[in-house]
Amino acid sequence: MKSSRLKIILGYGLIGLASFALPLGEFKPNRVVKGILLYPSDLFGLVVTLTLFLSILMLFMNQIRKKDPKAWIQWLIISLILLPSLALISLSAAKVSGIDFNPNAARVSLGIGFYVLLLGILIILSQFKSFKWLLLGMITLIVLSAMFDLIPNLGLVKEFNNVQDSFIIALSAHLTLALSSALSAIIPGILLGYVSYSHSQWREWVMGFVNLFQVAPTLSLLGLVMIPLSLLSKTFPVLSQWGIKGIGFAPAFIVLTLYCLLPIVANAYAGFQQVDEAVLSSAKGMGMTPFQIFAKVSFPLASPIIMSGIRTALTQNIGNTILAGLVGGGGLGALIFLGLSQAAPDLVLLGSIPVVIMALMSDQIFEVLEHKLIHIMGVHHDTTQTSQ
């Protein structure tokens, strides 16, 4: 209880800091020119007014809670969920006098104050059990603000309008590469995990093999894979026609698949290891073959932990796929690196935010699948336990 109260105080402290001391945005005449910082006092007092309102709620929280405990919580949640959208709308509507600019090129980039404000809101909302739904509601309001053209002057919106077709292609390529490479690692990962479990003399070799790819720097591994693929495509031109060459989809796919092996192998080994020996002995006593024991006993009982490994692999793979942009593999990484090369932070954010959202969504989807598998199999264990 004390920890929760301290977090709420911290959250309000961050909101207050962002509202009175930090710039929420930066007005830029164009993409590259340094702009003018926009403080909350410049935004028609909207954010400041809301913050003061929330602060007053905090000061009188005890009195309100005594009268109607649910009322203050409802008002608090509504205010916090609305605040980011209203701050963005205010930023987009901000006008700066004294400088000449082209309305089509001018934009407002997000400042440190907005991120501090958002962090404070998330800290407070995280204290509620329905945090995930509250976060979804807050994101939905921001998306609706963009869809209804309420934030047309934000740099993120401007960049999206400029590269809309490229963004959709990059998003599709990113998902395709991340999902296909993670799926390709599932069967080899499960088999290697089972080999480690059933043949103890091979365990060290298998774990060392999959750990090697996690230790090796991603860029170095991409470079090492590019060399043999380039030689193969030159020796056998048909491979180049199939898309297997030193740059593009192939090297990124291979490296990402290798990176997905460790969490799947480690969790598969842990899953098979936790199967009760008495159950396996009973299966043998019934005359089951080794394959039948694997398919009908060991694998079903180990599947919740294996699913946890797949969840980890896919979540980290969505982030790792950014590096495919360095070798012509496409994806949102291409937009991120383009933004870095052009010193366009809004373009970098445009490529980064969907990656974070997709990673969080995949994590939540697989968490639900894990719980369903545990319920179906009747297995209750800690799916976070993996082999070291």
Q: How does this model look, in words?
A:
- The protein is mainly α and 388 residues long.
- The protein folds into two domains: 2-152, no CATH class; 165-377, MetI-like fold.
- The protein has helices at 2-20, 46-59, 61-67, 69-93, 112-125, 131-147, 155-162, 164-184, 186-198, 200-215, 218-235, 237-241, 249-273, 277-285, 290-320, 332-341, 345-377; strands at residues 25-28, 36-38, 107-110.
- It has a three-stranded antiparallel beta sheet.
- α1 packs antiparallel against α5 (112-125) and α7 (155-162) packs across α17.
- The chain is flat, with a radius of gyration of 26 Å.
- The model is unreliable at 383-388 (pLDDT under 50).
Topology:
Layout: H1 2-20, E1 25-28, E2 36-38, H2 46-59, H3 61-67, H4 69-93, E3 107-110, H5 112-125, H6 131-147, H7 155-162, H8 164-184, H9 186-198, H10 200-215, H11 218-235, H12 237-241, H13 249-273, H14 277-285, H15 290-320, H16 332-341, H17 345-377
Structure characteristics:
flat; MetI-like fold; 3-stranded antiparallel beta sheet; mainly alpha; 388 residues
Shape: flat
Write the element-wise H/E pattern from the N-terminal end onward: HEEHHHEHHHHHHHHHHHHH
User: So what's the oligomer here?
Assistant: single chain
Protein structure class: mainly alpha
Q: Kindly state the mean pLDDT as a whole number?
A: 84
Strand content: under 5%
Give the terminus-to-terminus CA distance: 35 Å
CATH topology of the largest domain: MetI-like fold
- Considering the protein shown, what is the CATH homologous superfamily of the largest domain? MetI-like
Overall structural domain count = 2
Return the CATH architecture of the largest domain.
Answer: Orthogonal Bundle
Largest sheet: 3 strands, antiparallel
The percent of residues in helical segments reads over 70%
Strand order of the largest sheet: 2-1-3
Rg, alpha carbons: 26 Å
- Number of helical runs? 17
Number of strands: 3
Low-confidence stretches: 383-388
CATH class of the largest domain: Mainly Alpha
